[in-house]
Structures are given as C-alpha cells and as structure tokens.
UniProtKB/TrEMBL annotation:
It comes from the Bacteria. One of its GO terms (cellular component) is membrane. InterPro entries: O-antigen_ligase-rel_domated, WaaL-like. It is a multi-pass membrane protein. Residues 215-378 form the O-antigen ligase-related domain. Keywords: Membrane, Transmembrane, Transmembrane helix. The chain crosses the membrane at residues 7-27, 33-52, 64-91, 111-130, 142-164, 184-202, 207-225, 231-252, 259-276, 372-393, 405-427, 433-452, 464-483. It is found in: Membrane. The keyword rRNA processing does not apply. This is O-antigen ligase-related domain-containing protein. Its main location: membrane. Pfam families: Wzy_C.
Amino acid sequence: MRNPLAYLYCIFTLLYLLSFGLFSSVFIVYREIWYGFIFTGSVIFLIVLWKSSKNNSLSLPVRVLYLVCLYFGGVVLFSGIFHAISLYFELPFARVNVAQINADLWKQENIKFTMLYLFFPVLLLLQYQVMRRIRFISIIRYLSVCVIPSIGVIVYQGFVDNLFLNRWLPWTKRIGGLASDPNAYALTAFLLFPVLLAGSIIEKKPALRILMIIVAVLLIANMIFAANRTAVLGVMLLVLLIPLIISISMHTYRRSTRLGLLILTIVLILGAYFALDIVADNVGALGPVGKRLATTWNKYKHEGMISLFTGEEVRGNLWSVGCTLLWKSPLGGWGPGGFYREYPNEMYLRSGKVYLALDSVLNHYLMIADDFGLPGLGFNIALLFLPIILAIAALRKMREQQMRIITATILISNSLFVLMIILIPPAYFPDVLWVWTTQSALLLVLYEQNVTHDVNRIPVEKKLKLVHLSFIILLALMLIGAYETSFGEFGYSAKQETEWWPFKFDNNCYPVEFHWQGWGQWCKRHAILIIPIEDRQSGAMTVKFSAGNPDLLEKPLEVFYGGKNGPSARMIVNDYTLRSLTVPLNREYSYETRRPGKESADRSLVLSLDVSRTWLPQKFGYTGDTRELGIYVLYPK
C-alpha cells in the first residue's frame, strides 16, 4: 500500500503550484485568506510530521539549521508583533507614509508580510521531514505531474488569449500560467528544470523518464512568455556549467580530465558572452523576453554597466533607497514589508514629491536587511547557504556515481539561485518557495545520508549552547532595532511630530478618491482634513463639500467646522448640492511643514469637521461599500 504521506504531499504540491495564480487574478479579493489557509495547513502538516517521527535525532549541522529556522522565524514574528502592537495604539486613519496608507490598512499588510516571510523556514523544515520518509524519485514524479496544468495554461495564454487568468499585468503582455505572477513562473521553472533532469537520470520507468524531460523542456521554453531576464540568463548559465557539473560528479576521472572540463566551462561562458553581441539583434524575435534581453544588452554595450540601473531601469533607485533605509535602521529594519511602507517617505524627503513603491527593492538580501536589519539578514543568509555548504561536504564523501551527478546538479542550480536573487526577491512567491525548499531539503538529506558523525568525539551540546548564545544576542539586537522603528525614534507616533511630516493634523478621513464631483476625500465624524495651499493663495480659501445621506431631504445634516482647535461654527445641509465654505488662512486654519534641505515651508489648510450623523452605503443597498460616511470634501482645482 502506498504511503498516505505521499498522497498528502501530492495535494500540497498541487495547491502550491496551481492555486496562487488564481488568487492573484480571478479571486484576488480572497488572496490573503487563501495564503493564510495554505500557511496554516503547512504549519499543521509540519507539526504532525515532527510529532509522528520515530527518529528526530539530527546531526549537529542540521540541528544548527533547525535553530536558524527557529530564530529567523522568531525575528520575523517578533518584528511583526512589535509593529502590530504599535499600530494598535495609532488611530485607524493615522497615516503611516506620505502616500496616505493608514494605520488600519497597514495592520493587515503587516500580518500579510509577516506570514509571507515565515513561509520559507516552515517549508524548509516541512520538506526536510517529508524527504526523510518519501523517496526522492516520488517527489520528482509529483512535481512533474502537478506542474503540467500550469504549463497548459501558459501555452493557452501565449498563443490564444493572454488575458485568460491573467488580470494582474495585462498591459505588459507578460504571462505566468498558474503561478503567482510571471516572475514566479520563471523562477519556478528555473528551479524545477534541474530537479526534473535529475529525476530523469534515476527514473527506471521509461514513460516517466520521457515525461520528466518533456516537462522540463516545456517549462524552459515557456519562459519566453514570462519575460523574466534573470531566470532566462540563469538557465543559460546552468547549461553552460554542465562541464563543471560533470567535472565535480566524475570523481573517477583523471585530474587532468577534470581540469580540462573546468577550462571548457570557462571557454563556453566567454564564448557565450561574445556570441551575445552577434545575436543580440535577433534575440528580440523571442517575444517580450527577447526584446528585454536585447534592450538590456545594447544598453550595456553602448552605455556601460551603470546604465542597467538608471533611466528606465528603476533598480538603481530602489537599491539606493534600500541602502538609505538600512543605514537609518541597521539593527531591526522597518518591519515586515517595511520597504514598501517607507519608500514613499524616503522619496518625499529626497524630492518633496510623493512616489508609490510599485515594486520591491528588487534584491532579496537588501529586502531582508531593510525589513529585519543585519541580524535578520545574518539568519537568512545562514538558511540559504548552509544546505549548499553541507551538500559540498556530502559530495566529498559520496561514491555512488548516479547520486553524485544528481547532487552536483542540484548544488550548482541552488548556488546559482542564491546569486540570481540579488536581482529579484522570491520571498513573496509561496509557489517558488515550495520548489526552492525542495532543492534545499534534498541537499540536507543527502548530507545526512552520506556524512557520518562521531557523537562521542564531538561535544555537541556545548557547541549548541554557544550557537544558542550567539543567536540570542543577534535576536536581542534585532528587538532593540525593531523597537526603534515601531515605538521609538523612527516609530509611527514619533513620525507624526517630525518637522517634515505633512499629516500632523490628519485624522478620520478616507484616502483620496474620485467622486462624480471630482477628486476629494470622504470623512467620518470628528475628522480633521488637510489640504495643500498653493503659493499664490493668501487671505482665504474656499472649500466645497457635499453630503450623501439618502434621507437628507427629510432629516437635514448638521455640519460643524473649525481649525486646529476643533469645530466652532455650524452649517445646515438639507440637499445634495455642493456647498462652499470660505475660511481665513490664519494661524488657526493653516500650518507649515519643512522638508530637510528645502528653504521654503509647505503650507496646508487644517479643517476640523464633524457631522450630526453618518450613513453606510451597504446598509441602503447602493453598493457593497461598508464605510461610515459623513461628508465629501472636494479638492480645489
């Protein structure tokens, strides 16, 4: 009878490889709920595996890796908790950045990013526990079969309808099958490619061996639709490194033969470099990815390496902001997802303009450092590189030729991947993490199976105590830093008191939106609104507003208004016409903010508003809007 664990693992593989694309496009409203469901299921799966294990005795290096997972998870969790508590004490409509993201919304984002960062340590331990119980070839079979629907979808998208299940990036013409997004498809394909090739080596059934090879080829071929340059170049480099893989694998070869294979690898890489210059113009025929590669190569040839990070390439700007944020908070970072939150603030300090963070910092290591500081980065680097180091140790002990080829192939691809993520962070793609941790866990199991340990000779417990002590120190440093960016000098409340903060008096108003009367903001009861004052305005300013209560004609609305010290005057609104309110731009109704490096101050109107009652659109059956609405304030044109 087949192991029930194998069926359960197959179900999880299906969910990870096939569901996240649907919840990034068709069911995007439920995306966070689905992520939470899958994450919770994975944690339960891991606990059940650990509790049911008959042998949890681990070698010292693997025990250290377990501790790294535990402490990195602690870094993420404690950082998320610090920021969650700090946000809890903020008013729901208090802004956390100049892009007007409010504290209520960022509470949800904080939970989401905390969960996404916890996926990797949880999945690494889960995959390791599974691989100790299920044959590696069975896992490869599940992967090769489960990814086929995603391949079918991306082929349909590429040749028939690129909008099919692809609602998140329609204007780019980049598609990703059933992966989280096009980048996730490309990275998953890169990671699956060597795993499936390794499976074809040890698979004894010809039909399954052919299937693995076909799936591997299709995964790579469909990368042209995903248009991810990093993954395509990674595959090219992996193919060029085949002589190196052979050299590492064939320990029976003469030293001169192995040296010749190493030289051949260098020659192939240099040859590919010079060949790119010849074929660059023809590469553009390969669709979006070809055009992106050709553009990148031509920019590099004509303008140098620096051009790849400037101009239309935003990576240089993102890295610059990321480095600045790390410099400001090197110990604890800015919390889960902190780069997204703080990017608009940093750009505002630099330019005085509001820029949204439309992308991550596009560097995995810098992203981890920005969100969790250098201690968090240290734990993360240990998580990524320990399996590689242990696989090298295992390879030195292996004698079985077939397993040496498989180990070398996975080792080289995993090493390439930790270099590739300098250009793109995969931490927000659970489907990529599923395949990545498959590779990493395999390297751990190979180490356990091939390296013997003399427990009596090695003072294991003493070494583990030293590891614990050093990890506790790093965790304590992170907590100090996390306190500074949640409660302390750089915290949410402290930001409200800085000289440059433009929302000092802003409260209880929803983000700017387009109403049929123009751009403006809906406000609740007891609201304070700020409106920028143009340089040419002086003396007084006219503000227009309207109410939307369905029963307004029968029950007039009382609107109270004033300045910094609260409402002091009253108006009656008994119809749906625009009302005009003229207020003097004196000390009571205005305030100034001054950004560092700017001589002149920015002036804003402060308008306190209160209404006698509010209404909920959903309650009256107009829309699904559940907000509590008072009056709509129209922005001056």
